[in-house]
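Holo model, zinc ion. Inputs:
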Amino acid sequence: MSKLSSELDQAFRAAALRPTAQRYAVLEFLAEHRVHATAEEIFDAVNRNDPRASRATVYNNLRALAKAGLVREVMSEGKAARFDANLRRHHHFICERCSAVEDISWFDLPPSAGRAALGGRNVTNYEIVFRGSCVRCRDSKSKQGAKS
Ligand SMILES: [Zn+2]
Ligand SMILES: [Zn+2]
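Output:
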């Protein structure tokens, strides 16, 4: 058994969600392709491997995975929602030029951070969203700058 498939099996067990073939296919696609796909892109990918997969079933499975906490919706800001396998904690970087959403390796905030601002709220999870220019956009901008 591959490392990924045993990780997926474990995630299904931990979430107490029945790993049907299609749920498995959806989660596997998201875990393998860290592209923060839209529901439409997930449907296209799953449907390519299994042409019997209807749009409604794929969307329902996506919803079931999200409800079980195996998939999460990444901030979408008015655009189509993007989804992420929620197997490893990570932060996000959003490029303000090309809208790319990239994973940033997890690091903890110091426990004191935000305590005063949060008041009595009980925080169970958090993630940081960084914004700016991704490496590609930064490089293409500096190349343009060099020409002019
Ligand atoms: Zn970019
Ligand atoms: Zn992500």
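The longest strand covers residues 90-95. The chain has two domains: 1-86, 89-148.
Archived with the compound record.
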